[in-house]
Structure formats: C-alpha cells, structure tokens
Amino acid sequence: MSGLGAAPIGCVPIVWNNVDLPDLGPEVPYATILDQLRLLEFAGCQFGRGFPEGDALRMALRLRNLRLAERYCALPADASGLLGDPGETARHALAHLVNAGGEVLVVALDGGGGRDEWAGRVADGAPRWPKAAFDRLAALLGELADEAPQGVLVAFHPHAATWIEAPDEVDALASRLAGTGAGLCLDVGHYTVGGGDPVEAIERHQTLITHVHLKDVDSEVLARIRTQQIDGFSAAIQARIFTELGNGVLDLDGVLQALDGIGYSGWLMVEQDSSWLPPAEAADIGRRAVRQALERLDQ
C-alpha cells in the first residue's frame, strides 16, 4: 500500500470566501464552512477569511474533529525585495497559528507590484528580483523555522503574479533553503501557471517539499492569460483559471505518484480560488478526485 494513502487531506476555504477578491460571492459564515468541511470528511483546513482566532478556533475545529492545517501569510514586496518589516508580519501570523493549534505556516509574497500583468508568461521578459532579495527571504524563512515550536513547519509558497512564480525563481529560492529548516509549499496549480511541470518539481526538490496545495488549471483560461487576452491574474481568477481537480491540465496521478516516490507524508490541501459551482460541491469534487487517485496509486 502507498505510504501517501495515510496523508491527511485538507481544504483551503478560499473557494467559499476569497481573501483577495471578496466580491466574488457573498461571505459565508465560518461555522457553515467548517460544518461543510466536516460533512465532506476533510481532515483539516487553512485559516480562512472570517474565522475566529485562538481558543475560539481551537474549539470550533475540535467540535468538528478538524485540524488547523495551515495559516497563510503574504509578505509585501516590490522589485527590490521584501518591504517594511516582513519579520513582524510573519511572526504575527506564526503566533496566531500556534495559538490556534495550527501545523504549517505558509509564507508567500503579496501579488501585484509589477508582476500581476506578467502572470503565466514570466519567461517573456518579466522584471526579476535581484539575488539579494532571495538571500533576505531565505534568511527570514530560516529564522521563522528556528523560532517555530516543535512540530510546526514553515513552508514558502511560490505564487503566480508575484516575484517568485517561474520554475527558475523557485529554484533560486530552493537553492538557498537547504539547511535552514524551512521548506517549500508546492502549489501545483500556481507552478503550472508559472510554466513549470509539478511532477518534475517534486522530483527535483524532494525533501524540501513539506506541504502541498492541489489545484487544477483550466486550459482555455491559461491560454488566454498567456496570450494576454486576459488582463492580469486577478482577472484570470474571476474567469476561473483554477478549476475542479480532474477538469484541467493537471496530471494529478503523476503528482501523487511523484510525492509517494519521495516519501511525502504531509498535508494534501485541496484548493480552488473560485468556482462556477457552489463552494461545497467544488470542494467535494476535489476531495473525491484525490481519494480516487490515491486508490489508483495502490493498484
């Protein structure tokens, strides 16, 4: 039997309440989201928009036999690198994660800042970060990993429309993470948008991959953003560039096989930023797609 079969399957609640584009739909009460996650038999979730903090969240999750898989923290950045006091921002998120009994701090960069219009086509000549910016980010991630309590992971999430999107940008950061204690959160959807092959990324980065977001990419919308028929990444989200698992270009079987091959046993987080379907239906399609792919892996 595949060792990956024991990996917990979680869900990112952004498909209910989008953090970046709140006007995509009416806000759903957090209790409703958690109730639906329980009914769908997810093991846990990311901290979501409208969720309570600390003990209140611990209790809400415990009542539903759910775990707080992660908290997402985006750091401000521009073409020169991180802005302001990113350490304060990240440590604030880490403290809230720990206080609520969470397991993974997922760090990313804020979108925009000159890269939104380049999403999906970085190789065409997008502005790039200097080496010093990667150095500073890697150092901060290492500090966070050192400060995190035992059992709490720190993982960086490459993200479309930010300064670390394309495979060579991910490589540039990954080369600086060895020995820091920090890892990568591989979002296979964003990595695909950035022009990469998630299976190849898993095989290349191996033990650095400590957390995984599973999302699929609509081929038509992806083609439109790459040919600039869609103006920027936010518009692509509104066009539902991320679709239900199994409905896009993602090789889900290949991704899970590659993860099993490196002995991965962390969270498998089903994620979809927006959907034409009701949120719970979209999440359920994702959960069932993962379960079915895991069953095929064992055949």
Write up this protein.
- With 299 residues, the protein is an alpha/beta fold.
- The chain has a single domain (3-297), classed as Divalent-metal-dependent TIM barrel enzymes (TIM Barrel, Alpha-Beta Barrel).
- Helices cover 40% and strands 16% of the residues.
- It has helices spanning 30-39, 54-63, 86-99, 131-147, 167-177, 188-193, 198-205, 219-226, 233-238, 252-261, 279-297, and strands spanning 9-11, 44-46, 67-75, 77-78, 81-82, 104-109, 153-156, 183-187, 209-214, 216-217, 242-243, 268-270.
- The strands form 3 sheets. The protein has an 8-stranded parallel β-barrel with strand order 1-2-3-6-7-8-9-12, surrounded by 6 helices. It has a two-stranded antiparallel ribbon with strand order 4-5.
- Helix 7 (198-205) runs parallel beside helix 10.
- The chain is globular and about 45 Å long.
- It starts with 8 loop residues before the first strand and ends with a helix.
